[in-house]
Every structure is written in C-alpha cells, then in structure tokens.
Amino acid sequence: MNYSFLTAGVLVALAFLAHTFIGVREALSTRPLRQGQRDSDFMVLERRWVQSLCAFQLVTIDLLALAALLIALSFPSLLPARQSLAQMSLLLLLGWGVIWLIQMAALRRPFKDYLVLGQWILWFICAGLLYQGLQAF
User: Membrane spanning segments where (predicted)?
Assistant: First the structure.
C-alpha cells in the first residue's frame, strides 16, 4: 500500500466534504437580491449566479473523482497505468495550486486572504505527497 497516495486521497476526500457541506451553503448565500433593479438587470445577475453555482458543482464532482482515484492508486494491483495516473494527478493538483495563486494575485487580494482562502496550500501538499509516493515506483 502506498500511504502517500492514500493520505493525499483522504485529504482530497475531506476537501470534497468541506466543499459539499460548507461551500454549497456559502455559494447559495451569494444569490443576488432584487434591490430596485430592472427585471432585465436582475435576470442577468441571477443567471450569472446560477452559472457560477453550476460551475461550483462541477468542482464537487472533480474532487470526488480525484479522491477516489488517489485512494485507488494507493493499492498497487488495483489500477493499470498507475504511474501515469499518479503523474497526471500530480500535475492537476499543481495546476490547481498555481492557478489559485495566479487568480488571487490578479484580483490583488491582501496577504490575509491568501491564508484564509488557503486551498492552494492543500493542493501543493497533496502534490508533494504524490511526488513522494511516485518515488516508490
């Protein structure tokens, strides 16, 4: 058993649970309120909210699939092409972390937000665990 892969899988599974139960509640709270806007303006705001909520739910599926893949990768005989799948997962997690940081910088967020919105830290930790696990091949 590869405990680095298993640990990364469990961490992503925990992220899935947080995303599902806490993130959904937070995402639902951003629904626009009708505050004297014209109907057409409000409909545009609400359509954008629905689109962002639907995109948010796509991440839910990604997290669940990645957690399942990483946990499956921790069992040596369960999946073919195990090394390639682990390498692609590592690149995905690195990409998530880098893009998260780029977005934070592009939005000119204060340093405190980098810590409060620190999901990028989790992605880099999981990528490091996968790197460590790949050394066992």
Answer: 6-28, 49-73, 85-102, 114-134
